[in-house]
Write a structure and sequence with these properties.
411 residues, alpha/beta, Carbamate kinase, VC0802-like, 2 domains, eight-stranded mixed sheet, six-stranded antiparallel sheet, 12 helices, 18 strands, 33% helix, binds adenosine-5'-diphosphate, binds aspartic acid, binds magnesium ion
Length: 411
């Protein structure tokens, strides 16, 4: 029988009523003749609570134990979903990541899926099981311990299963009815897109649009998974939601197709480091070893052989970065001072149309300047421009850019 993957995010399984509603959706697909793999997230708020407990006990936690704790939310929803389906007389069984097994790297808290052998679940489908409910976000590392895939990782579990089982489609059920031109919570003018190109979705996701985890889009692109985002709160047709697809399948699109933001960023500056070969390598090598994901980087013009190095990072990695850079101060690296600005956000405009049209950056900077918003760091790629600004202007910047690029109107 054809296989369908259906993923339900945290708000879609937030309580027993919602689990029942999601199970009904699954029942509709089972009735159509699909064998279904359901990927569940933890109930909304649960993972945050678990992460909070870990942080409180151990700010520079051992990532293996972090994974042991934060993976647990998904175990609960997987079992509850299987029970709900059984109550509906649908043969269902829950699976934790290690049982499948979802084999991952050992990079705890940010593991990558390496392989999902389908044999165990396929054997159960062969015996009459109609739904395999799999705990998202988790797997088993080569070290034999439970791993997690990074926040939002259930999306990646879902796409990886769709690829491994050659599923007809991977449906991501969430609390919005598709991918929008920007987060609909920031502006009511955000417009739902019927289709979005993989590459644009990849940029939007990696720049903060949390509707899909970046890695899930990468996998869908690589393995040609038919990926759809839709609401778990509305009755759905087969055309509902947003299809993430190849560029060629999209007839018309705006130069800028979306605005993304990442609210909780921090900026760190190392004052007065030597301006000589090897310094950047020392700084960023040390941060990488500490598990810090550096994003934007700027190096000032040097004066008398000394320079300042500024970079941005997610705010929850500041403690780690400070500890690592303090550790090497006066040893591998000399610097005068480390300054942290925890109050910044990143706002980005994305569009494949930028490849062929110039002037987008100039327009973006003009819009921000008209709003009196100071730009602290800029980075660009072929299809995106990102700026770091004070967090208090983040919403304003997103709204102003959405207006200026007329994203409420279709091309
Ligand atoms: P889930 O718990 O289902 O995984 P998430 O909270 O991870 O859901 O992702 C859905 C949320 O992503 C939406 O509620 C919305 O606020 C946010 N979001 C950010 N950018 C976008 C966008 N461009 N389109 C749709 N939703 C977006
Ligand atoms: N529960 C995990 C998180 O909140 C994974 C997910 O929901 O995708 O990040
Ligand atoms: Mg999510």
């Amino acid at each position: 029988m054809p296989v369908l993957v259906m993923k339900f995010g945290g708000t879609s399984v937030a309580n027993l009523d919602r689990i029942r509603r999601a199970a009904k959706r699954v029942g509709v697909e089972v009735a159509k003749g699909y064998d279904v793999i359901v990927i569940v997230s933890a109930m909304s708020g649960k993972t945050n609570e678990l992460v909070g407990w870990v942080d409180e006990i151990s700010p520079l936690y051992d990532a293996r134990e972090y994974d042991a704790v934060v993976s647990s939310g998904e175990n609960v929803t997987a079992g509850l979903m299987a029970l709900t389906l059984q109550e509906m007389d649908i043969p269902a069984r829950s699976w934790q990541g290690w049982q499948v097994p979802v084999m991952t790297t050992d990079t705890h808290a940010a593991a990558r899926i390496e392989d999902i052998p389908p044999a165990n679940i396929m054997a159960k489908f062969g015996e009459g099981m109609r739904v395999a409910v799999v705990a998202g976000f988790q797997g088993i590392g080569q070290d034999g311990r439970i791993t997690t895939l990074g926040r939002g990782g259930s999306d990646t579990t879902a796409v990886a299963f769709a690829a491994a089982f050659d599923a007809e489609r991977c449906d991501i059920y969430t609390d919005v009815d598709g991918v929008y031109t920007t987060d609909p919570r920031i502006t009511a003018k955000a417009r739902k897109l019927d289709k979005i190109a993989f590459e644009e979705m990849l940029e939007l996701a990696s720049l903060g649009a949390k509707v899909l985890q970046t890695r899930s889009v990468e996998l869908a692109m690589r393995y040609k998974v038919k990926l759809r985002v839709l609401s778990s709160f509305e009755e759905q047709s087969d055309e509902a939601g947003t299809l993430v697809c190849d560029e060629e399948e999209i007839m018309e699109s705006n130069v800028v197709s979306g605005v993304a933001y990442s609210r909780d960023e921090a900026k760190m500056t190392l004052l007065s480091v030597a301006d000589r070969p090897g310094i950047a390598s020392t700084i960023f090598g040390c941060l990488s070893e500490a598990g810090v994901n550096v994003d934007m980087i700027v190096q000032n013009i040097s004066e008398e052989g000394r320079t300042d190095m500024t970079f941005s990072l997610p705010i929850d990695q500041v403690k780690r970065a400070e500890a690592a850079l303090t550790e090497i101060k006066g040893k591998a690296l000399n610097y005068a001072e480390l300054i942290t600005d925890p109050g910044v956000s990143k706002v980005s405009v994305v569009g494949i149309g930028m490849r062929s049209q110039s002037g987008v950056a100039a327009k973006m900077f003009k819009v921000l300047s008209d709003e009196g918003i100071n730009i602290k760091v800029i980075t660009t790629s072929e299809i995106k421009i990102s700026v770091l600004i004070d967090r208090k202007y983040m919403e304003l910047a997103v709204q102003a850019l959405h207006d200026a690029f007329e994203l409420e109107k279709a091309a």
